[in-house]
Specification:
Mean pLDDT: 75
Low-confidence stretches: 37-62, 110-134, 478-483, 501-507
Distance between the termini: 83 Å
CATH topology of one domain: Methane Monooxygenase Hydroxylase, Chain G, domain 1
GO molecular function, one term: actin filament binding
Structural class: mainly alpha
Subcellular location: Membrane
CATH architecture of one domain: Up-down Bundle
Order of helices and strands: EEHHHHHHHHHHHHHHHHH
Number of strands: 2
Number of helices: 17
Pfam family, one: FH2
CATH class of one domain: Mainly Alpha
Shape: elongated
Protein name: Formin-like protein
Family: Belongs to the formin-like family. Class-I subfamily.
Amino acid sequence: MEIFQESSNGFESSGQDLRNQPPAGPPPPPPPPPPVGYWERRVRKPPISTTAQKCDASDKNEETPRLKLKPLHWDKVRASSDRAMVWDQLKSSSFQVNEEMIETLFGCSTSSAVPKETGKQNPVVPSPKMENRVLDPKKSQNIAISLRALNVTKEEVCEALLEGNAESLGVELLETLLKMAPSKEEEIKLKQHKDDSPVKLGPAENFLKAVLEIPFAFKRVEAILYIANFDSEISYLKKAFETIEAACEELRSCRLFLKLLEAVLKTGNRMNVGTYRGDAHAFKLDSLLKLADIKGTDGETTLLHFVVQEIIRAEGSRLSSTKTQDNTLRVDLECKKLGLKVVAGLGGELGNIKKAAAMDSEVLSSYVSKLACGIGKITDILRLNNSSKQFQEAMSEFLKKAEDEIIEVQARESVALSLVKEITEYFHGNSAKEEAHPFRIFMVVRDFLSILDRVCKEVGKANERSFASSVCQFPVPVNPTLPPLFPKINKATIPESSDDESSSSSS
């Protein structure tokens, strides 16, 4: 069939045959957008942005640019050639980023950053200093109450101070005695008081007067209290340094933590493609705390959820590789349960790190210094001529044991702090010198483990819901082995009724 066009001379044939042309109609509708935010559903790779399409149209020979994702603002670490680092142990093939899933979840979109609200802190008003004076009625009453509560007499206290016996007094009583120590002026007043004076002393004043009759009484109290606390403080410090050493070893040798770092490194490099943060070879562990702040397009899934899901799949496949694949859906769920159990157990593998994070290096060092200074105080008391022979023997016997214990604790402290420095440099390289707190690396890992535990619980619940919804989409099959509820009746076995019976029943 030919097409006729209108011209000045009338209608002329265009010579175009429309018999083989498709019928005209509206343009086909655009394809639906890909689903977003579901782990169990295969997602379609999102379309390239209009800018990328223009670039691709201008140069078709060039490779299609990769979709821009939300950035991960991490702190890159420069690899050091003069020391071994954890990043040297990463294998290039042990973890592969799911490109389709990460582009679907974390495609870049314009969003205004909401600044964090900082609550107004009320200014701390220093409490006014209260001037407490010995012989003050209130202080005297408090001392008397403490003595009655401790149920001790002044004769027992004086005898223990003369002999240097720490066991008979106890830590609580010795600490209470130190709080009772009077000033120099008040000490003079108590010593000058005479028994025949018309002014009578109360129970607290009488007790302090009797104690002050012992030479250097409150110096003795300090020495005996030091001895009473010595064993427990030495034990605490040794255990603390052992925990720090174990935490360093856990952080260095944990296979799963190394796997997690590799997953985060590769995922972060994919997120930061085309930026100065991309192509990183290492990052500071502080960046782990930022993974839960980057949310996907569904508003619920975070970058940490994505990393955990990928590691769960890898660990589950590793543990269930010998199992049969008779039911794909159920085996997939069991595989994820195995992987989730491994990832959720990371906190248990790094238990000493949580304990070390609660410690303060300055406090531990002050404890060690305090123990060393206490030895000097006891030595000074022994030099005093007024010390009894029994007291000197008790102090000398203690010093022989205490000096060796303190030297050992000081050595353990040096080793522990050295290991902390090494493990920090093992992860952070030269930037470890910028750490304000020596134990900061433990604090960061502890906080990350707390976030990871919460995310693992959320992922487990999401996997259970996904499995339940998938099962509901399929009809329940009938089990052919079950007997029928109502057996079929054979008509041949039923006797036919006679006409008489039928007529009588109808009547």
